[in-house]
């Protein structure tokens, strides 16, 4: 378990609740916010835990648990 990916984010790094669109960290344009489904027991469930925008071939995380990353 030592090499589990770990992401530390303090509450002061989280902004207001995110809307339908967010500014892309890559190109600074507005993109639709999408959410990664949560996979549990081989089934996928909609989840708002991880919000991201797609820019070209890449995805950029913009929200954690519905709150925008500043
Ligand atoms: Zn972009």
Summarize the structure.
With 70 residues, this protein is mostly beta strands.
What can you see in these coordinates?
With 70 residues, the chain is an all-beta fold. The protein has one domain (15-69). 0% of the residues lie in helices and 49% in strands. The chain is built from no helices and nine strands. It has strands at residues 14-17, 21-23, 30-32, 34-35, 38-40, 43-45, 50-55, 58-64, 67-69. Strands 1-9-8-7-4 form a five-stranded antiparallel beta sheet, with no helix packed on it. Strands 2-3 form a two-stranded antiparallel sheet. A hairpin with a 6-residue loop joins strand 2 (21-23) and strand 3. The termini are far apart. The relative contact order is 0.28. The model has no long low-confidence stretch (mean pLDDT 86). Zinc ion (ZN) binds next to loops.
First-to-last CA distance: 30 Å
Number of strands: 9
Shape, per Cα inertia axes: globular
Instruction: Note the total helix count.
Output: 0
Summed up, the domain count is: 1
Low-confidence stretches: none
Which kinds of small molecule does this entry bind, naming each only once?
A: zinc ion
Mean pLDDT: 86
Q: What is the secondary structure topology, with strand pairs?
A:
Elements: E1 14-17, E2 21-23, E3 30-32, E4 34-35, E5 38-40, E6 43-45, E7 50-55, E8 58-64, E9 67-69
Antiparallel strand pairs: 1-9, 2-3, 4-7, 5-6, 7-8, 8-9
The structure holds zinc ion.
């Amino acid at each position: 378990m030592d090499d589990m990916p770990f992401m530390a984010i303090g509450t002061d790094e989280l902004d207001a609740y995110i809307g339908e669109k967010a500014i892309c960290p890559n190109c600074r344009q507005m993109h639709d916010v999408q959410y990664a489904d949560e996979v549990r027991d081989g089934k996928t469930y909609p989840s708002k835990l991880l919000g991201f925008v797609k820019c070209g071939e890449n995805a950029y995380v913009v929200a954690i648990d519905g709150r925008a990353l500043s």
